[in-house]
User: Fold this.
Amino acid sequence: MTNPWNRAHGRRAVALGGAALLSLGSTGGATAQGAAPAGRGGAPRCAAGMITKITLEGNGAAAGAVVVFGQVFRPGDVPARTGVLARAGEQAVPTQLDVVARHEDGSVRFGLVSVALPRALSPRQTLELQLHAGDPPAGARPLDPAAVLGNRPLILEIQPVAGSPWRADLRALLAATPRSGATVWQSGPLVTELRLRQNVPAAATGCTSLRLVADLSARADGTTWLDLWLRNDIAMQEGGGDAIYTARLLLDGRELLNTAPLRHFHYTAFGRISAFGPGGAPAPVPAFVRHDLSYLADTGAVARYDPSLTVSEGTLARYGQTVANPAWSTPFNNRKVHQYMPEVGGRDDIGPATQSQAAWLISGDRRAAVYAMGQAEAAGVIPWHHWDPQGAEGGSWLDTRRWPRLWTDPRGGRPPGGLMQRVPEATGWTPESAHQPDLSFVPFILTGRRAFLDHLQSQAAWNVMCTWPDPRGGADANMVRFNQTRGTAWAIRQLHEAAWIGPDGDPQRPYFQRCEANNWAYLRSQIPTWRQAQGEAFGWVPSDIDPPFEVKPWAQDYLVSTAAAAARKGNADARAVLEFMSNFSVGRFLAGDRGFNPRDGAAYVLAATDARRTPLRSWAEIGAQTKARGWSNENGWSHSAGNYSQLALVSLACIADVLDSAEARRAFRWLSSSGAPYTTIGDYAVDPLYRVVPRGAERRSC
Assistant:
């Protein structure tokens, strides 16, 4: 039931809750109109046996409308050969679970949950659903997308600069697509989703590198959903390059999509969702899903963001206004993602998540969600998508299994050392691993949208292939040697996420798992050497290219957040790295009696050696040398003007949460009340990106 790439095992678990789909108009069942979002405060309402709850916010959809969302589960919550049942109060709700990945014990790690509304939900009206593990009834037949689509023509038309248009009949492509293996994403009586793929001929675009990748789904409410992507990402093939074309999507001859003439740069992607009902009219906007934030943190999927924080209305309104601007929908718009990634400063797209993702998780506000999902779409525009058509099982993202010495940097030269076609210089993007945003993981786990998984995996693969092969070690994928500490942090983060959430049976997942494991093992192997060199203040990870006479605490904080993310999911090597780093990360705020100013724990930089480049091995020595070089905060915060205190608090919260460290909690309390810059609740309300708290500090809903 776990493997979308292996139909022999199945992957469907369905619970119709004892109600036929035709009886969904019943008005029975408890609703929670005006209730607080699940996991965000309010009185406990936890039913016996409940795993978690979600809150649906209406948008005018009728009874029977189908809602699809992603859900991560703790080990054991949904055991093997068990499905998920949803209830609204005492009323059973038709539910379908499509398992994507399982924990080592066979229980569900991640799946797509589909529910049919038991009653109509007017705009802003809410309904709370409780999710339970339960045995699904047998015999439920999956929907047939072809039957829902009927005989209505659905055509993608690509018009070249000169000549006749090329047309892809998606209905015919659907008929030719097998209902097994990697084509199947969902399959059940509420939703069936299949992936359609076809290469676009060079005559239509002027290149051989453009692919059509479309996720077509049929829902029991009679709607059809098409997540259509044009991916100009085929690498290592003659004739690849920029594509020039105009695209139209036609249903019954009516335009659902019509672009202006496009210059589609190589290694980028463009996609949009179209949804329509039985008569061809646009499908109603489905109810919006709010997850239980505290439960998500308990699964290890996200950092323990503070659900009691009230995100500023000004921040949320800004998201809404930005999305409403017509420029937002322009093909290849960067959607406020920083295109020059080496840019430094307090960016809202760098951290354990992005600012809008944090706002979405904390507030459950639709405006933050739409903004964050839009940026996840914009991840396709970044030129780090390299598809190898000769990769495992019909193609995969470019990796070191086939190309152990390949480097996507222009200095890689010709294959096998570099790309057959270089990354275009005119894209407007400068991808860089040390400042890369994590645009796709949170949107994927909350929505289950398969295109976001594509973006997550392509970014993870790029992190390996953009690294100089000599320190990378060929197939070892070492992201630590000859890298900035922050580059190490973000590169391993992307590998970790792709390895953890990737579908069971996906041939790329073992590759990501091996790459991640190699990096944590390497870091762990260096701990004895680092510990011996660093003395009582041990716990920071040096960099081969950062100045050897200094240590930047905020860069260590980045790596702490990544180590904590992996450790909370059970990675023993990552936990060992986190335990090592905790001595420095926590001790910098508790070493006042050993000659180190706690305010300097959040300074921009600390001394690591003396004037003779002899390593400093005590807190007193580090404190004295930091002060002597004019780097100390003294009695103020003059060297903590950025978000350095916020980053330190994230580290302390993560260490307290994962390692159950009383010292980290004590340091967190001190720094929170110290008056350090940008650490008030008002500051976090405007920018919630780093509002991570220790376990128990958040107000729980159950």
